[in-house]
Design goal:
By secondary structure, the protein is an alpha/beta fold. It has 2 domains: 4-169, Peroxisomal Thiolase, Chain A, domain 1 (3-Layer(aba) Sandwich), CATH 3.40.47.10; 181-331, Thiolase/Chalcone synthase (Peroxisomal Thiolase, Chain A, domain 1, 3-Layer(aba) Sandwich). It is built from 11 helices and 13 strands. The protein has helices spanning 20-24, 31-38, 52-67, 91-99, 115-128, 152-155, 210-214, 224-244, 263-273, 284-287, 294-304, and strands spanning 4-12, 16-19, 42-45, 76-80, 105-109, 135-141, 161-169, 181-189, 197-198, 221-222, 255-258, 313-320, 324-331. Strand 4 (76-80), helix 4 and strand 5 form a beta-alpha-beta unit. Helix 3 crosses helix 4 (91-99) and helix 8 runs parallel beside helix 9. It is globular, with a radius of gyration of 19 Å. The relative contact order is 0.19. It binds acetyl coenzyme *A. Residues 29, 33-34, 37-38, 113, 152-153, 156-157, 197, 222, 224-225, 227-228, 231, 261-262, 289, 319-320 line the site of acetyl coenzyme *A.
């Protein structure tokens, strides 16, 4: 079976910046509280005429350019998102049309903040089996339209953005070194904890009514403490599992590319894994939690900053509503 390589990365953040000071004027919060509890200083907000697929396309273009691939060359597009343009059709269908990726079949994966890791894993399977040669994986999320801007528990956390990865079979014919590319992905779900992070209204269980809108049940509802505890445990476990699959120890990891939910979650995970913080690319101070977008944005930034060297071991990790989580091991 073929192995898959990441041959292009791209990211996009809307130009409008919303600082903690801006939020102080909206809800009963302070810059100091937000920084201390989350590490976030500012986040981006999409323009009123911007949709999730618009951001996805903006991230995809530089990823395709880096890969030297035209949109028509793509066989597959997978978009991780829970904030699509519309409930139907998929965000991926709009992305396919906007890019002009005529040959690609396209669909969304709904795994919340784990969305891009799930999408990466799905696309990896298609490339490994040879059913797709060129795949575009996107994490794109526009949470600013699904937040209650009077709820300080949630509105300070999220930002809008998109990240993209282009996958292709490993072209490396040099068999002398250890195998490169995506070594494995490890996905987990525990639906028994679904209720700790939801958008309760607007679906089949609680269709959109005036009451749903009035009670703002069409926005994110979260038990922050429970999410925090679950996230630390789950990310540590799945990272150990992913590394053990290749006989690797945390000490052999060169880079951590993680979903940027909260600085304290990441610090707790890194401390338990005994991986120095400097090995983890951090950008949540600039973007907040961009949900499924944060993993590919982080990889793109780390790569373009010259941090990733051939042969480096990268561990990726993400966690989101569901609860969904997982890890991946990549040799760059
Ligand atoms: N500003 C000021 N005070 C606030 C704010 C705010 N923005 N938000 C909550 N508070 C208050 C609470 O109301 C509470 O007040 P009370 O004690 O009078 O009730 C107090 O701060 C302390 O609340 P805690 O829940 O103890 O605060 P905690 O230290 O747990 O931090 C936080 C809250 C930041 C949400 C934390 O629990 C967290 O990060 N959880 C993970 C949630 C997360 O990352 N969600 C993202 C989506 S899921 C994902 O990406 C994996």
């Amino acid at each position: 079976m073929e192995r898959t390589q990441i041959v292009g990365t791209g990211s996009y953040a809307p130009s409008r910046v919303l600082t903690n000071q801006d939020l102080e004027r909206l809800v009963d919060t302070t810059d100091a509280w937000i920084r201390e509890r989350t590490g976030i200083e500012e986040r981006r907000q999409a323009a009123p005429d911007e949709s999730t697929s618009d951001m996805a396309v903006q991230a995809a273009r530089p990823a395709l350019a880096m890969a030297g691939i035209q949109p028509e060359d793509l066989d597959l597009i997978v978009v991780g998102t829970v904030t699509p343009d519309m409930p139907m059709p998929s965000c991926a269908a709009f992305v396919q049309a906007k890019l002009g990726a005529r040959r690609a079949f396209a669909f969304d994966v709904a795994a919340a903040c784990s969305g891009s890791l799930y999408a990466l894993s799905v696309a990896d399977q298609f490339v490994r089996t040879g059913q797709a040669r060129r795949a575009l994986v996107i994490g794109a999320e526009l949470f600013s339209r699904s937040l209650d801007w009077s709820d300080r528990n949630t509105c300070v956390l999220f930002g809008d953005g998109a990240g993209a990865l282009v996958l292709a079979p490993v072209s490396d014919t040099d068999d002398s070194g250890p195998p490169r590319g995506i070594l494995s992905t490890h996905l987990r779900t525990d639906g028994a904890h679904a209720e700790i992070l939801t958008i309760p209204g607007g679906g089949s269980r609680m269709p959109m009514t005036e009451e749903v809108l009035h009670e703002r049940l069409n926005t994110v509802h979260m038990n922050g403490r429970e999410v925090f505890k679950f996230a630390v445990r789950a990310l540590v476990d799945s990272t150990h599992e992913a590394l053990a699959a290749h006989g690797l120890e945390p000490g052999q990891v060169d880079h951590v590319i993680a979903h940027q939910a909260n600085l304290r979650i990441l610090e707790a995970v890194l401390a338990r894994l005994e991986i120095p913080r400097e090995k983890c690319w951090l950008n949540l101070h600039k973007y907040g939690n961009t949900s499924s977008a944060s993993l590919p944005i982080s990889l793109d930034e780390a790569l373009r900053a010259g941090r990733l060297k051939r042969g480096d071991i990268i561990v990726m990790m993400a966690i989101g509503a569901g609860m969904t989580w997982g890890s991946a091991v990549v040799r760059w």
